[in-house]
Amino acid sequence: MNEGEPGRRVVDGRFELESRLGGGGMGTVWRAQDLLLHRYVAVKEVRPPDIDLAEYDPDAAELLRQRVLREARALARVEHPNVVTIHHIVDEGVGTYPWLVMELVQGGSLADRLARGPMAPAEAAQLGRGVLDALDAAHAAGVQHRDVKPANVLLRTDGRPVLTDFGIAAIRDATALTATGSIIGTPDYMAPERVTGQSGGPAADLWSLAMMLYVAVEGYHPLQRGTTLATLAAVLQEDVPPPVRAGSLTPVLSCVLVRDPEARADAETVGRMLDAAAAQPEDRRPETTSYRLAPPAPPSLPPTDGMQTASRRRRPAKRNRGVAVASSVVGVLLIGTLAWKVLPDGNDKKDTSASAGATGQTQQQSTPTASASQSSAAVKTQDLLTPSGIRTAIKAFKEKTGSDRFADFSVYPGYVIADVMVKGSQTRYVSYTYRSGTGFDEGFDSKSTVTDGNEPVKLDDFNWDAVPALLKRANKDLKVKDPTSRYLLLRPPSTNGGVTPAGMAIYLSDDYGSGGFLEASTQGTVTRVVPADD
Fold this sequence. Notes:
By secondary structure, the protein is of the alpha+beta class. Helices cover 24% and strands 20% of the residues. The strands form four sheets. Strands 12, 13, 14, 15, 16, 17, 18, 19, 20 and 21 form a ten-stranded antiparallel sheet that branches. A seven-stranded antiparallel sheet has the order 1-2-3-4-5-7-6, with helices on one face. Strands 8-9 form a two-stranded antiparallel sheet. A hairpin with a 6-residue loop joins strand 13 (415-421) and strand 14. The longest helix is centred in the N-terminal third of the chain and has 20 residues, at 121-140. Keywords: ATP-binding, Kinase, Nucleotide-binding, Serine/threonine-protein kinase, Transferase.
């Protein structure tokens, strides 16, 4: 690294970094100018999620460096129009991490495209075929991707997909467990066998591809939950609900999104099915102005006598049995010392607090505590989905952690879940659950890193006094006749596909999975309203 023009950094004396394109736990991507060939390129600064890895575990850091170099060299031999081209590797030796110089794809990502609305099945099938071709080429070279997701599919200006972040994703196997016990990877698109700690194979990449296509046509992720742990548990325990808008793409999703990798269709079969789906007459495209996104399900929490579980997400009835992470979940060796949360017992009840008015009056309820003497006593609780309740929770998180920066913040009437940044870190956070009346759920905190493009935020500048008015408007405009669940989610600022400012969102849903949401700025100005389906 050396200096070029004032304020500019130059890598390897040749690549002048101009602007940041994105970044996250695995590094930062820059738009750069190749000063020798006079062209623009993308330069990725590869680094582990734990920036202190080289200091406390130099052997692991060197292993990571060697793994990146090996995977990058293997990928450089893959010549395919749907695979991002690696032009150059900058390696400064032991104690450093490599820089990868790649072609600059300027059409945005699939994540950017889906932010504008879901895709028609034929369109998604055509895109999926291009990504499958990229995976086939890489698998033939002995390279697995391990992190197929919308953010890693770039689009050329003519719409053709280009799969990126090969090899970089592969280092996750070498650093599956950091000293902090953090999860490395993207749980939403991770195949079940990889969640259980197995290395997986090409079939695991096919699962990720199929899940990405499901999201592309349905408009929501069927297994995404409010916390990383709950999402991982859903991947391991819950069936993927049958798609309703996939049209000609339905057979592909049905034969790939099965837990047993041996039972999944192989790449050749998937290719034929994608070709057939893409050749079908254009399925009716969902209208993005009226398409309803199913609100995310409240996270799975350890049940307590005083807390009613929130309503289920829209999906077929299934076994939602309670588990304490045993048998099939033994694979949590992937995350070492990570403490798993117990899933609810399946007897979902109405969240009676959800029907309370938007003013959120203080109420009495009986909540057990850790001590036997307290368990039989009534504990005065506060509706946390109120300005005072939110401020009480924020204060509690600050006092517990010493940090005032949050990667996520989810508020329910009886509890709040927050991803609080580790003090002094830009990427690491710890998830905590705070309950009204009883405080923090001890033993159920978990650790991870922020995802690419998302930025931590301070909550002091939010206008929490606007929450009652937002709830009132949600009750009126979201058209959820008998809401049994209501909650507020933080919208953290993001650099994916441009700069998205911080904000918040109010969700309402009923026992049938029908729900809607509204989004607002940090000051409470409503920016988007998506009512429930009739």
